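Lab channel / #folding
Pinned by the channel admin:
"Please post every new chain as: sequence first, then the structure tokens as a reply. Keep commentary short and put observations after the output so the thread stays searchable."

First post following the new format, from NK:
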Amino acid sequence: MGRNMVRVVLQWGMLLALALACAGRTALAAEQDIALATPTGTLSGTLALPAAAGKPVVVLIVAGSGPTDRDGNTPMAGGRNDSLKMLAAALERDGFASVRYDKRGIGASRAAGPAESALRFGAYVDDAVAWIAQLKADPRFASVVVLGHSEGSMIGMLAARQAGAAAFVSIAGIADTPATVLRTQLAGKLPPALAEASERILAGLERGETSADVPPALAMLYRPSVQPYLISWLKIAPARAIAALRVPVLIVQGSTDIQVDVGQARRLGAARPDARVVVIDGMNHVLKAVPADPQRQLASYGDPALPLHPQLAATIAGFLRGLPQQDASALN
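Reply from TO:
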């Protein structure tokens, strides 16, 4: 075999080995389906595993309110933002596994959802507890950390305590009671008659009383079928719930979040003085780098090409690396 032919064969062999190595890493790092069996149906999720060998920490990602799916998308936004999907990918690059899932009644878990009138906030907490238990029993993982976004923060902090998670991360979570937040969000935005009706209905729900007299303009918020859920949700006091946790806590809030203000993160931190509180300058509610301009905010909710704020993944990874008793292979 001539010298040039030998060189060609050697180069081809090196390229083949590199291609096989890359293909192997892609297979290891690829997302895969994961499921949770419940008495009322199966919940569907996505498991992302890092390519590095060893037992990584796994992060259970709990999505926010309404029909928000495992990727952070909601049909009400008019498009995808893929925020939680991007977050899972960022965690995988930093050496951490993650599971994100469609809550019952949403996306691929739609069949497991009850009628709206039968849904209670506690069902979401019970599901997260079951996910944590399943992941804790999985020998592939060193420990389970819960990360909740928006309303998922409320779900996550309750589930983390009940199921004994190793740590908790709140992103854009509220500290005030939901009724307080609703009143703040609605203040000055309703004409007097609707504002009066809203307060009447909300005060009744706080007392555990439903109302059949709902003005059409308020039906999206207070329709009779959703009122039992609201009653169960309004009972939650996030500041007290996070204070009851006995694990490391990270509280992250974006400075340009138009849904949850920085004061909520500060109050969560005050309830847990040992927690790390990080305010990311220029990060909005869907975890992107977006200024406070209303038009750009609105566009970001349906723009999957807009990347995560670059500080977010580094903040979470730094917190996870600082947790005690981790498998060193998860930190590569």
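NK: The mean pLDDT is 90.
TO: also worth noting, Residues 3-29 form the longest helix (27 residues).
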